[in-house]
Design goal:
By secondary structure, the chain is mainly alpha-helical. It has a domain of 97 residues: Winged helix-like DNA-binding domain superfamily/Winged helix DNA-binding domain (Arc Repressor Mutant, subunit A, Orthogonal Bundle). It contains seven helices and two strands; from the N terminus they run H-H-H-H-E-E-H-H-H. The chain has a two-stranded antiparallel sheet. Strand 1 and strand 2 form a beta hairpin. The longest helix is centred in the N-terminal third of the chain and has 27 residues. The protein is globular, with a radius of gyration of 18 Å. It starts with 7 loop residues before the first helix and ends with a helix. It comes from Streptomyces halstedii.
Length: 142
């Protein structure tokens, strides 16, 4: 028999996941503020530090409206952290890309995030692998 969505264990797991997400966002927002960035700006910068991408792809990855991403990229561009460039595969498409300063700032932001890193470091590699696999399964991406 499948567990009820309201059984105590399920409710406890849901609450713990919510607590983890909330603490991660609080820490991310603090790290962003130390660089005078909003949490949303920091998340876009983190994505772009990995690879240039079109605004629509950024919006899909962050699950928000493309018009919001345009404004965020505009502000990051004014700060010299992001630049727009033509997509070499399709010159009609503009890519947003982190500048060298943007990549450096994104690295500093990642380095400042202790909450997510430190508790995970207390888990063995096998436990982290199992947790990753369970989360992927929950999200349907396994």
């Amino acid at each position: 028999m499948a567990p009820s969505r309201t059984d105590p264990l399920t409710l406890d797991v849901i609450e713990l996941i919510g607590d983890v997400v909330a603490r991660y966002h609080e820490e991310y927002d603090r790290a962003a503020a130390a660089h005078t960035l909003t949490g949303a700006q920091a998340r876009v910068l983190a994505l772009l530090s990995l690879e240039p991408m079109p605004m629509r792809k950024i919006a899909r990855r962050l699950k928000c409206e493309p018009s919001n991403i345009t404004g965020i990229v505009d502000r990051l561009e004014l700060r010299g952290l992001v630049e727009r460039r033509p997509d070499p595969a399709d010159r009609r498409v503009k890519l947003a890309a982190a500048t060298e300063e943007g990549v450096r700032t994104a690295r500093q932001l990642r380095d400042a995030l202790d909450f997510a890193r430190e508790p995970l470091a207390e888990l063995s590699e096998a436990e982290r692998t199992h947790l990753r696999d369970l989360l992927r399964r929950m999200l349907g991406t396994d």
